[in-house]
Prior knowledge:
With 185 residues, the chain is of the alpha+beta class. It has helices at residues 23-30, 48-63, 110-124, 140-148, and strands spanning 8-9, 13-17, 67-73, 79-89, 94-101, 130-136, 152-163, 166-176. Helix 1 packs across helix 2 (48-63).
Amino acid sequence: MSLPTPTLHSERLRLRPFGDADADDLFALHSSAHVLRYWDAPPWSERDRAERFIAACGHMAQEGTGARLAVERVSDGVFLGWCSLNRWNPVYRSASLGYCFQEAAWGHGHATESARALLLWAFDTLDLNRVQAETDTRNVASARVLEKLGFVREGTLREDCVVNGEVSDSWVYGLLRREWQPSSA
């Protein structure tokens, strides 16, 4: 089952399908060791990773397993990062939320705003019942984003990944449809 990849809007942001023209911005984002310091994969060192990522976004939508969308400012079209729903399961009506933003975009509410737009689509259009997210326990800023959106910390995955050669724990968050408040700040 194919998942239609939407273009979503918020007050300041546009979430849209990735295109080939996004490869340079995507490579700049994912080649930053600082941006990916809590990521479970090393920074990219080859630009073709960006092209494979963009192709994988298309496959994800075609296979019906998720949607990964580029996030840009409406005012000037500047690429800020991406936000995604993946591991979409129509039987269980669930999916996982993820996001990654350029350092210059941090602290401006872009992750919260774009994730809120994606969650609105998830609950209203896809009729999901549950959205899950995970974050490295050291990534306090990401935990704050999830909590602002209404996610509840449900537990800790102990030593579940290796980040930059260091064993790391992750927090698991969940948001249920009945708890979802689309306009919460």
